[in-house]
Amino acid sequence: MASIDYSQKIPNNVDLSSDKRLQRALEEWQPNYLEWWNSVGPTDFNANEIYLRTAVSVDSDGWAHFGYVKMPDYRWGIFLEPRNESRTVGFGDHLGEPAWQQVPGEYRNWLRRLIVTQADTEPASVEQQRLLGHTAPSLYDMRNLFQVNVEEGRHLWAMVYLLQSYFGRDGREEADELLQRRSGNPDHPRILGTFNQPCPDWLSFFCFTMFTDRDGKFQLLALAESGFDPLARTCRFMLTEEAHHMFVGQTGVGRVIERTCSVMKEHPGKDPAQFGAFPLELVQRYINFWYSSSTDLYGSEVSSNSANFFAAGLKGRAFEERYDEHKALEGSLKIERFIEGKLAAEEVALRNAMNEVLRGEYLADCQKGIDYWNRITEKHGVEFRLAPHRRFHRKIGDYAAASSTTRATRSARRSGTRRWASGSRPRRTAPSCSR
Ligand code: BYC
Ligand code: FE
Ligand code: FE
Fold first, then answer.
1. Nearest CA to ligand 1 atom 36
2. Phi, psi for residue 419 in degrees, rounded to 5
3. Which among 158, 168, 227 has a CA at the least distance from the CA of 14?
4. What are the pLDDT digits (tens) for 192-204?
5. 3-class secondary structure, 335
6. By three-state DSSP, how is residue 182 classified?
7. How many Å lie between the centroid of ligand 1 and the Cα of residue 219?
8. Is 390 within 8 Å of 363 (Cβ atoms)?
9. Whose CA is nearest to atom 4 of ligand 1?
10. In terms of Cα–Cα distance, which of 291, 325, 178, 161 is closest to 235?
11. 3-state SS string over 28-44?
């Protein structure tokens, strides 16, 4: 039951052959998808045989097949985790009711908006990364890049399936528009900020997969809790592919740091850039940029949207089962807000603070990766510690109004979390966002 039907034009485990209307919609969309891939997906390399992982089953052991394939021939398909017939809504006002197999009419617009927002990021990331194949540091990296690209393409398929299958005509229109918006296009941009930023070099790519794909992980975890069962099952399967994307980022930045530290030891007191390595201050700036931009992807600290999504049972908390209580009607969260130029702690009703709850989980997960990088500098006896700050360089939420550069830097120094290698203190300028 969990295996995927590869005999069809569109591999799937949703019994596509018995749903002619959906099959027609997807088969109409498929050539447009390929046209999109060929025009704004990876430039070049489409005729090369590339060793790629392809999802072939939703069984936790042995879900993937590895083999050589040309990217345009990749078997993008539609795979959902198997259905649990007795699943109930796990949070919000509908707690305990049977999970929905169809879109609840009263939540249709919210749900469509959540799915479209999620969907839009997937092709955006492919567009952002399209030139990187030409400057890959190694074949290993190149293969990882293309692996990430084809899987983000599949994530788009996953969301388009939901739109076309459950949202009728407007779902089909949304699916078409997903192929029309373009990352960074001033007239027709992608929806969320980070996905319109250029990602022109490999250190950006590694930071992107470390921080932005990790936002993907947490947003998918929250949507995997959804009371709308097809969305939950789709997101659960997407999460299987996500781990590798973050691995690429974490180890990629780790390798850059490793190289810099070796060069610093070999040539003490010299600028590592002279020897072709990235100065750690520069690595810190790249991290600042992608960390802050990805932190913005959780929306405002206090959000009635997030309260509505939670109340309706559409978007939960990551790992909802770890919480004792699932209605979140009583509790509050203490948030450090930035109001009228001042930082002030405020108790916010829990439902209105759901963006901040998810952001907190995300930042704690990021910290593990940052600690891993700092163990590399420590191992080499280099004093520099990477320490991005959650309030720095924000464009969304309270801190967008703040310029916390100076304060964050000062307080990080005071608490000893950030040390510069001697003689390499950076100039105090904000990282640029127009790289
Ligand atoms: N940029 O009430 P607020 C992934 C908008 S990544 C631009 O604070 P809400 C992937 C917001 O839309 C995962 N606009 O926010 C990674 C709203 O606009 P409207 C993607 C922003 O709604 C790597 C207004 O500001 N998945 O999968 O509570 C590679 C006020 O918003 C931004 C999802 O995001 C921003 N950063 O939360 C490939 C999950 N932030 O309505 C793939 C689905 C906010 O006033 N999305 N705005 O016009 C959501 O859950 C929510 O929509 C958000 C925003 C968390 C994004
Ligand atoms: Fe994705
Ligand atoms: Fe990803």
1. 297
2. -125, 140
3. 158
4. 999 999 999 999 9
5. strand
6. coil
7. 10
8. yes
9. 216
10. 161
11. HHHHHHHHHHHHHCCCC
Q: Are the CB atoms for 171 and 268 separated by under 8 Å?
A: no
CB 76 within 8 A of CB 9: no
Q: How far is the CA of 26 from the centre of ligand 1 (A)?
A: 26
- Ligand 3 centre distance from Cα of residue 236 (Å): 13
Pocket of ligand 1 (CB under 6 A): 114, 117-118, 121-122, 125, 152, 192-193, 212-213, 215-216, 219, 296-300, 303, 305-306, 315, 355, 396
* Plot region of 141 (φ>0 → left; ψ -120 to 50 → alpha; else → beta): alpha
Ligand at minimal distance from the CA of 353 is 1
Task: Show Cβ contacts of residue 290 under 8 Å, excluding neighbours closer than 6 positions.
Answer: 194, 204, 207, 208, 210, 211, 212
Write out the H or E segment, with its range, that includes residue 231. helix 229-266
Residue 78, both tokens: 């539609």
Paired tokens of 358:
């998810």
- Distance, in Å, from the CA atom of 113 to the CA atom of 419, rounded to the nearest integer, reads 43
Q: Considering Cα of 116, then 119, then 121, then 125, what sign does the dihedral take? A: negative
Supply the DSSP symbol for 369. H
Residue 61 has a pLDDT of: 74
How would DSSP label each residue in 255-293? HHHHHHHHHHHHSTTS-GGGGT---HHHHHHHHHHHHHH
Distance CA 62, CA 65 (A): 8
Query: Among the atoms of ligand 1, which is closest to the Cα of residue 209?
Result: 23
SS3 for 53?
A: strand
Determine the distance separating the centroid of ligand 1 and the alpha carbon of 192, expressed in angstroms: 6
pLDDT at residue 408 greater than cutoff 80: no
Looking at the chain, the whole-number percentage of residues with pLDDT higher than 90 is 82
- Domain range annotation of the chain: 16-279
Does the 16-279 domain belong in CATH 1.10.620.20? yes
CA 404 to chain centre: 25
pLDDT of 115-138, one tens digit each?
A: 999 999 999 999 999 999 999 999
Residue minimizing CA distance to atom 54 of ligand 1: 299
Name which of 72, 75, 74 is nearest 35 in CA terms.
72
223 CA: nearest ligand 1 atom: 39
- Supply the residue whose CA is at minimum distance from atom 21 of ligand 1: 192
The kind and range of the H/E element at 342 are strand 342-349
